Predict the structure of Vesicle transport protein GOT1B.
Amino acid sequence: MISLSDTQKIGMGLTGFGVFFLFFGMILFFDKALLAIGNVLFVADVAFVIGLERTFRFFFQKHKMKATGFFLGGVFVVLIGWPLIGMIFEIYGFFLLFRGFFPVVIVEFLRVELLGHLIIQFFFFP
């Protein structure tokens, strides 16, 4: 079992609330207030989970500046009141920022017994 510090536990809670508000904001036809709350919670949870210094180093690496610009620009656009355009920017920036993690996530999904079997059957043997 992974041991978490108190700040990491708070960050995981903020992650849950952030995902809830983002999901609920999209269900309610891109409600500005809910999406703004979800975005603020998501950015705050990253800082709580990995720490302020590591968050700054992750987002502001030289080769990730375009991705960071799109992601944080999308957050800003949602906060000023254009939620659909802001979410498009955020999603694009998110995929650019975290594209290095996707192969790891896929391998971990394949290692889960039932889920991995379903993924292999669905994608490789239609």
